[in-house]
Design a protein that fits this description.
The complex is a heterodimer. Chain A is of the alpha/beta class. Chain A contains 8 helices and 10 strands. In chain A, the strands form 2 sheets. Chain A has a 6-stranded mixed beta sheet with strand order 6-7-8-3-9-10, with helices on both faces. In chain A, strands 2-1-4-5 form a 4-stranded antiparallel beta sheet, covered by helices on one side. Chain A is globular, with a radius of gyration of 18 Å. Chain B is built from 10 helices and 4 strands. Chain B has 2 domains: 169 residues, no CATH class; 95 residues, 2-Layer Sandwich (Alpha-Beta Plaits). The chains are: A alpha/beta, B alpha+beta.
Chain lengths: 227, 284
């Protein structure tokens, strides 16, 4: 479903990713860990086709970075959702409208919007706060709105770039619960994080990005390295 | 549905950033007012010149011995020249009346006879604006059989044409500068408005909106801002020219489709300004 072949990316004469191979299958939950500046965001941007490799190829579903046309990138992004640690919500719209916005910009009709938004808000536990404005929500709730907005177009994968970076431990736990729930319903999740404490209790396939190289580590190695 | 969303989002932009929108509309209005006033000044100066220049004529004195038929032939012959607009026969009697009306002297009373010869008044086409062409025409006419002399106010024509050309050059330079300033001011104001809302562009890109869909609301907003700004400018210019007409003997002359041009210009600037400003924030 997602495959990176011999991908190398350099930015300002510094090699960020060096000959990376990666495959993520449908419905997987994968952690991407590594120090700040290790290249986690760069890797997510490659999958979102916000950045293209200097060499190698990124294949996402039926799209390939070497051949994708500009006009097809929006189509890809409807199926590859992304969330960040900063929430990027529209401050002048309520929760419902923030989520509905993702459907409106792809031309969905009102009935479809209402039904999908209410469903996805229920899934993230915010149905009862649908008329609240972003400033009336806690950080964790705002991040859940962002997740709802990312999911409303039914992507096959959710890329989460440090989604708990701005949250307290309890809110972070809630976000991870939501991501687990999403994953169980079939959406793959690739979560970049350096909050090792948080992900200890949710074991999944773990990739480490270090010095531009990507390496998969076992649960035992992870626990050993992060102790 | 999608088009309606684009229009609605465009209109909502006014509610979301009312101050920025108001500033943009006022900037459009102010710059278009300055441009309109400049255009009106140029048009009216040009019109005044045309009126004065239209009075420039060649007086072709013809032999009193010519028969009426020969005079008619001569008129027709002169009429054939491409520089000539009209040819009017002035009899000695008409010339005398004109002289008396202009100078108030009774020539018959002094000289006992009318000394004025018959003549033809030749007016030039408005596009004949080269002294050399007028000189050439005068020379040709003076060689025609039956023509005694050709008289024209060469110095006056030279003076008029000289200052007309300088005026044209200066106004062209000022015009270009004005248009460039107008475009830059409007573009920058629109760009600042869009810069304040770049997050919405970022979110649209994240969730997979096409570039057309992202640009749409901003372009709609830009067009409406341009339209409203140009309406304000038209209202101001209309008011100003109406007052001038009432309090002075000047009746301003408007170029064809003046108001339509201002409104069209406002809309076009709004469209182009917003279109290219959004482009700066589109990574794709």
């Amino acid at each position: 479903m997602i495959e990176l072949f011999n991908v190398t990316v350099s930015i300002a004469n510094r090699t960020i990713l060096d000959n990376i191979h990666l495959r993520i299958d449908k419905g997987e939950f994968v952690y991407l860990i590594g120090r700040t500046g290790a290249g986690k965001t760069t890797l997510l941007r490659l999958i979102h086709m916000d950045l293209f490799p200097d060499s190698g190829n990124v294949v996402v579903d039926r799209f390939s970075s070497s051949s994708i046309k500009k006009r097809d990138i929006p189509l890809l992004r409807r199926k590859v959702a992304v969330i960040f640690q900063d929430f990027k919500l529209l401050p002048d719209r309520n929760v419902f409208d923030n989520v509905a916005f993702a459907l409106r910009v792809v031309g969905a009709n009102s009935r479809e919007i209402k039904s999908k938004v209410l469903t996805v808000l229920s899934n993230v536990g915010l149905h009862h706060k649908r008329y609240h404005m972003p400033h009336q929500l806690s950080g964790g709730e705002q991040q859940r709105v962002v997740i709802a907005r990312a999911l409303v177009n039914e992507p096959f994968i959710l890329l989460a770039d440090e989604p708990t970076g701005n949250l307290d431990p309890q809110a972070s736990q809630e976000i991870l619960d939501v991501l687990e729930h999403i994953n169980r319903s079939g959406t793959a999740v690739l979560m970049a994080t350096h909050n090792y404490e948080l992900i200890r209790n949710y074991p999944h396939r773990t990739l480490v990005l270090e010095n531009g190289r990507l390496q998969e580590i076992s649960r035992d190695q992870f626990l050993k390295n992060t102790n | 549905m999608r088009l309606w969303f684009i229009i609605k989002e465009g209109l909502n932009g006014f509610k979301r950033a009312p101050l920025a929108t108001l500033i943009t509309i006022l900037t459009v209005a102010l710059t278009l007012i300055l441009l309109s006033i400049f255009i009106l000044i140029i048009t009216n100066l040009s019109s005044a010149f045309q009126k004065t220049y239209h009075q420039v004529q060649l007086e072709v004195f013809i032999s009193p011995a010519l028969t009426a038929e020969q005079q008619q032939q001569l008129v027709q012959q002169i009429q054939q020249y491409p520089e000539v607009a009209t040819v009017t026969y002035i009899s000695p009697q008409t010339a005398l009346k004109k002289f008396q009306a202009t100078f108030g002297s009774d020539l018959i009373g002094v000289l006992d006879e009318n000394p004025l010869p018959p003549s033809l008044e030749v007016t030039l086409k408005p596009d004949v604006k080269h002294l050399e062409a007028i000189d050439r025409l005068a020379n040709v006419l003076s060689t025609l059989p039956g023509v005694d002399n050709v008289f024209y106010q060469r110095e006056v024509i030279h003076f008029l044409l000289y200052y007309y050309r300088i005026g044209l050059l200066i106004s062209a330079v000022i015009g270009v500068v004005f248009i460039v300033i107008t475009v830059i001011l409007i573009f920058n104001t629109i760009r600042l408005t869009i810069h304040g809302r770049r997050t919405i562009i970022e979110i649209m890109q994240l969730v997979g909106a096409t570039n057309f869909f992202i640009k749409g609301p901003f372009v709609v907003e830009g067009i409406i801002q341009g339209f409203l700004g140009s309406l304000l400018a038209c209202g101001f210019v209309w008011g100003l020219t109406t007052i001038i007409t009432h309090i002075s003997p000047i009746t301003p002359v408007f170029p064809p489709y003046f108001y339509a041009g201002i409104i069209g210009g406002g809309i076009l600037l709004g469209f182009i300004g917003s279109y290219f400003s959004v482009n700066r924030y589109l990574k794709l």
